[in-house]
Amino acid sequence: MTKSIxxxxxxxxxxxxxxxxxxxxxxxxxERDAFVELCDELDxxxxxxxxxxxxxxxxxxxx
Length: 63
What we know:
mainly alpha
């Protein structure tokens, strides 16, 4: 019985933390390709790096 309750709580928390929005930007194809290639070389993803940039920017602006 406890596992069922824990699973429901975990599922609700997962839904709260789920990314559910997109940001569409327009950049030059060459810049996008170079960025994605560099991210691959650094074993990261373009999306992860952009999310980190946004969080850092928001944190700095909040000070």
